[in-house]
Write a structure and sequence with these properties.
Blueprint lengths: L1 H9 L2 H6 L22 E7 L10 E7 L5 E6 L5 H16 L4 E4 L8 H10 L2 E4 L9 H18 L6 H14 L9 H6 L18 H31 L13 E5 L16 E12 L2 E5 L9 E3 L3 E3 L8 E2 L2 E2 L7 E3 L2 E3 L2
Parallel strand pairs: 1-4, 4-5
Antiparallel strand pairs: 1-2, 2-3, 6-7, 6-10, 7-8, 8-9, 11-12, 13-14
Helix pairs in contact: 3-4, 5-6
């Protein structure tokens, strides 16, 4: 009986859309690969909805995933895809070279054909985060939090002057020692730490070019090993609060969480927790799946496994409205009447 009840409840549509799972979020941490050199793998995003300061209302943030170095570019407003590509060339590519991979969210600038074609011609891979899962670009999101806290500390009383402190915010971020590498971004990229204030000491002799390259390689190797160690530590810590992800196959149906989807219903507390079921069309990576959504759903169809729940076929009732179903067993004739196994 317990097995039959469990199977019946799992296949109940009303239970599936109304009940939230009580287990840990699905999907172990799948971190991005560790780069081998500075400014080869980047993360980009925007800080928006800022008060006007020097005719600027947003910040374009570019983060190097190797050294954790950042570039903060003030803008008058959200740029188009072509303007964003030109900003990347003017402020990043011409100083640090063309990268190998760029991670971003699914903003309109980053999903446009212009952005993809621009980087495709340069041989740069464009990686987009899965739907409603900003952790895919977690390093950039974390950097945005630190920058926002810095600006809030200095500008909370006069918020229209944040643009004046943006250069110091970038300098401070690039001078801060990173726990993952054990170095500051300046040390990791330039192999030395510029002083925060004028230095009165006598400069040392200029080293040879060979020594500079050897020292750079030593610093980068050390940073790479530190990053791998920090990645293993972060992965172990994150997996303590996550469960193993269920394995889905293309063609299988799943329920989709409504945690980040705005439903046109008056009360969120009484709204369904899941919608669907939807068919899986593709497995993008071990923890990301693409669903076949209806055309009227104006959201990207790729989702993290933690937002999905397996769909179970409903168990038909043995009798419906007094009519015996096809699989109803033959009755046993007893003295007190008919009985069913």
């Amino acid at each position: 009986m317990a097995s039959d009840v469990r199977r019946y409840v799992q296949g109940c549509r009303e239970c599936a859309i109304s009940k939230s799972p009580c287990h840990l979020p699905s999907g172990k941490l799948l971190p991005l690969p560790v780069p081998n050199r500075p400014w080869s793998h980047l993360g980009v995003d925007f800080i928006t909805d800022l008060p006007t300061s020097g005719n600027c209302t947003c910040i374009f943030v570019v983060v190097d995933r190797f050294s954790k170095s950042c570039r903060l570019i003030p803008l008058k407003g959200l740029p188009t895809a072509m303007e964003t590509a030109e900003l990347m060339f003017s402020h990043i590519f011409r100083y640090f070279g063309i990268p190998e991979d760029i991670v971003s969210d699914r903003g309109p600038q980053f999903i446009s054909r212009v952005w993809k074609a621009f980087h495709s011609l340069l041989g740069v891979a464009v990686s987009l985060s899965s739907g409603y899962h900003p952790q895919s670009n977690g390093q950039t999101e974390r950097k945005i939090q630190e920058i926002s806290r810095f600006l809030c500390t200095f500008c909370h009383g006069h918020q229209d002057s944040w643009n004046q402190f943006l250069g110091w915010a970038e300098y401070a971020q690039n001078s801060q020692r990173q726990p993952s590498t054990g170095l500051t971004p300046f040390q990791c990229v330039l192999c030395y730490q510029p002083p925060l204030f004028p230095w009165s000491g006598e400069p040392s002799d200029i080293p040879s070019v060979d020594y500079w390259f050897q020292e750079s390689e030593r610093v980068w190797d050390s940073a790479h090993n530190q990053l791998q160690w920090a990645l293993r530590r972060r992965r172990m810590t994150a997996d303590l609060h996550r469960s193993e992800a269920p394995t889905y196959q293309p063609g299988q149906k799943v329920w989709l969480s409504t945690r980040d989807i705005r439903l046109r219903l008056p009360c969120c507390k009484l709204s369904p927790r899941f919608i669907g079921p939807f068919t899986i069309t593709e497995q993008t990576n071990p923890i990301t799946y693409r669903l076949q959504l209806p055309p009227e759903y104006r959201i990207h169809p790729t989702f993290h496994v933690s937002l999905l729940k397996p769909h179970h076929l409903s168990v038909p009732l043995s009798t419906e409205l007094g009519v015996a179903a096809a699989e109803t067993p033959l009755p046993l004739i007893l003295d007190d009447g008919l009985a069913y196994e």
